[in-house]
Specification:
mainly beta; ten-stranded parallel sheet; 1 helix; BacA/B; Polymer-forming cytoskeletal protein
Length: 151
């Protein structure tokens, strides 16, 4: 109430810019920005670009064998690996996660299963990831030349 910021509930990123179709199988890591809908299979890590409010939607026919890290995540398929949601994760009724989940906000429908631990993250940890990424994107800073005074 006084001095505490309330978190915005739910998904912030709503646009899906990329689709990996049901008949696509990828071996290797996937990095995405904006929104990604995954109907296919990925054998590797799926990671949202650091510093961007990303959205990953894993459909009921999609599967990931690897770790997942993103800002907002909606799971209705299968994940074998650890999941980190910097802001929000929604586990739909068909979600099957074998691995640990770290989240800031969690919504879980009846029927979803998790074989692992659920750990609530601190809001500061997620914000630090966004701030660190923005600083890294700024690139190296130019420093003024040092002046020396020799007497």
């Amino acid at each position: 109430m006084f001095g505490k910021k309330r978190l915005q509930a739910g998904i912030e990123q709503t646009q899906l810019a990329t689709l990996i179709a049901q008949d696509v199988r990828i071996t290797g890591d996937v990095e995405f920005a904006d929104g990604l809908r995954l109907d296919g299979q990925v054998h590797g890590d799926v990671v949202g670009k650091q510093g961007v409010k990303t959205l990953l939607v894993l459909s009921d026919c999609g599967a990931i064998e690897g770790n997942v890290h993103g800002y907002d995540i909606v799971v209705n398929g299968r994940i074998v690996g650890d999941v980190i949601a910097d802001h929000f994760i929604e586990l739909k009724a068909n979600a099957r996660v074998t691995g640990n989940i770290q989240y800031l906000q969690l919504q879980m429908e009846s029927g979803a299963t998790v074989e692992g631990t659920l750990t609530k993250r601190e809001a500061n940890a997620a914000q630090e990831r966004l701030i660190d990424a923005r600083a890294a994107d700024a690139g190296p800073q130019l420093l003024a030349p040092e002046t020396s005074t020799n007497a």
